[in-house]
Amino acid sequence: MAGSAKAVSPAERSLYEAFRRLDAKSRRDVALRILEDEKLLSDLYDHLLIKKAMDETGPSIEWPPNGRGR
Question: Is 38 a member of any domain?
Fold first, then answer.
């Protein structure tokens, strides 16, 4: 959660701290179980693609092109 600009609730902080207290195998098992959720996995993939695009240098590309939808 370091580096996050979002305010974190006490419940979120407690959950994260409990997760970090687990041993490495248990953290891996929990993460794999969470990632079995197709919607969550899709959202995570989208987030990572957006983050990667934001980290790349160069001009932004307008979407949709010319401000028009389909």
Answer: yes
